[in-house]
């Protein structure tokens, strides 16, 4: 029997007369990487914003660690949704210290996440001089400050070069090994295939497929077949 860090039960999100998410049920296993796949505009960001409390579902419920989700659970959830919220005139440590003060976390924790995200050599460098990959890593470092049980990453490899993508893949795998469950969204199939344990395929706000990744399966073909079938129906 699998244990789940988060489940959504028939959640929907309606904006005016349009459903961005429609009657969606998904399950994310503990200590795993869940890859959320879908074309641009499929509803991935909307779903992740509901899980992280940025927006509220119109209907349905979210279950976090076997109990109904509440705002208190945000203390156990770290996230990087869209661009990381950074102060460009501060250093990486100073950015972390601002967040740590709000969370009541020590400076030692700031140094710990800097080391974990391979940013220890940025002590005197302002964020304005960071590469995109460094900013993404710092955004994840911010999300790790509260020792989350669930880490939510929305399109974290967008704009990264191949080396930056490879580094981020390795880091994501270490999170699951260390006991942090991860949801990572992407429209880049090859990235998800290399990092995820399970996948969900989303289109037009509906979860069309959810299962463990089969290493021998052609993920691109599976994805295209599922999306084409949905569009033809």
TrEMBL record:
Supply the alphabetized keyword list: ATP-binding, Nucleotide-binding, Transport
Q: Give the superkingdom in one word.
A: Bacteria
Signal sequence extent: none
Matches recorded under Gene3D superfamilies: P-loop containing nucleotide triphosphate hydrolases
Q: Tell me one GO molecular function of this protein.
A: ATP binding
ABC transporter domain: residues covered = 6-229
Q: Which family does it belong to?
A: Belongs to the ABC transporter superfamily.
NCBIfam families given for it? galliderm_ABC
Recorded protein name is: ABC-2 type transport system ATP-binding protein
Q: Name the species this protein comes from.
A: Lacrimispora xylanisolvens
What lineage, starting at the top, does this entry show? Answer: Bacteria, Bacillati, Bacillota, Clostridia, Lachnospirales
């Amino acid at each position: 029997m699998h244990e789940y860090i988060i489940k959504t039960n028939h959640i929907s999100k309606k904006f005016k007369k349009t459903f961005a998410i429609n009657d969606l049920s998904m399950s994310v296993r503990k200590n795993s990487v869940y890859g959320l796949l879908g074309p641009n505009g499929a509803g991935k960001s909307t779903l992740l914003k509901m899980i992280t409390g940025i927006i509220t579902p119109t209907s349905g419920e979210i279950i976090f660690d076997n109990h109904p989700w509440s705002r208190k659970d945000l203390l156990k959830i770290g996230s990087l949704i869209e661009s990381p919220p950074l102060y460009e005139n501060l250093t990486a440590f100073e950015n972390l210290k601002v967040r740590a003060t709000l969370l009541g976390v020590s400076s030692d924790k700031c140094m710990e996440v800097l080391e974990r995200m391979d940013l220890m050599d940025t002590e005197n460098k302002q964020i304005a001089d960071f590469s995109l990959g460094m900013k993404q890593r710092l955004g994840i470092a911010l999300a790790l400050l509260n020792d989350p049980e669930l880490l939510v990453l929305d399109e974290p490899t967008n704009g990264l070069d191949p080396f930056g993508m490879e580094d981020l893949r390795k880091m994501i795998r270490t999170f699951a090994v260390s006991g942090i469950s991860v949801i990572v969204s992407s429209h880049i199939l090859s990235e998800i295939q290399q990092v995820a344990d399970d996948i969900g395929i989303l289109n037009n706000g509906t979860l069309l497929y959810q299962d463990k990744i089969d290493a021998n399966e052609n993920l691109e073909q599976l994805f295209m077949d599922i999306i084409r079938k949905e569009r033809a129906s």
